[in-house]
Amino acid sequence: MTIASMDLKPKLFSVTITFLAVLLTFTMISCSSSANNSDDSKFNPALKQKMMEAERYNSDELISAFIKTSEELNENMRIELMSTGLRLGSVNELIITAAGTPKQIREAARLEFIVHMELSHIDEIK
């Protein structure tokens, strides 16, 4: 073993550790942001924008929405949806009217039977 090869091993080890740390950091950031946004595809642009505005100002404003489900709402689905804190309005086959905070709407979007959500231009559901 020469002196030159002994000097390279600590540097190579350091570079490898640094590379792995950077790779792990990017992986964690990527996973966390995709987990937070994984259900955003269920929102129409107007609802997404309204929720982002409310979140930016930490508003507890109730946002009215139309919710489309994959099948007609049954009692178990209703209970699961209400457990998110949403206020449910009318139910018509696959379409539900509801109102909630952005947090409640995001939580509802995680439910498997929720297919799509749109901003309702109807006044607040009471």
Average per-residue pLDDT, rounded, comes to: 81
Distance between the termini: 80 Å
The dominant shape is elongated
SS summary, helix count = 4
| Largest sheet strand order | 2-3-1-4
Strand tally, please? 4
How much of the sequence lies in strands comes to 15-25%
Helix percent reads 40-55%
Order of helices and strands: HHEHEEHE
Radius of gyration: 23 Å
Query: Would you tell me the structural class of the helices and strands?
Result: alpha+beta
Largest sheet: 4 strands, antiparallel
Model regions low in confidence, pLDDT < 50 over at least 5 residues = 30-37
Description of the molecule:
The structure is a single chain. With 126 residues, this protein is an alpha+beta fold. The protein has helices spanning 3-37, 45-56, 75-82, 102-109, and strands at residues 63-69, 87-92, 95-100, 114-119. Strands 2-3-1-4 form a four-stranded antiparallel β-sheet. The radius of gyration is 23 Å and the shape is elongated. Residues 30-37 have low confidence and may be disordered.
Summarize the structure.
It is built from four helices and four strands. With 126 residues, the chain is of the alpha+beta class.
Salient structural properties:
4-stranded antiparallel beta sheet; 50% helix; 4 helices; 126 residues; alpha+beta; 20% strand
Topology:
Layout: H1 3-37, H2 45-56, E1 63-69, H3 75-82, E2 87-92, E3 95-100, H4 102-109, E4 114-119
Antiparallel strand pairs: 1-3, 1-4, 2-3
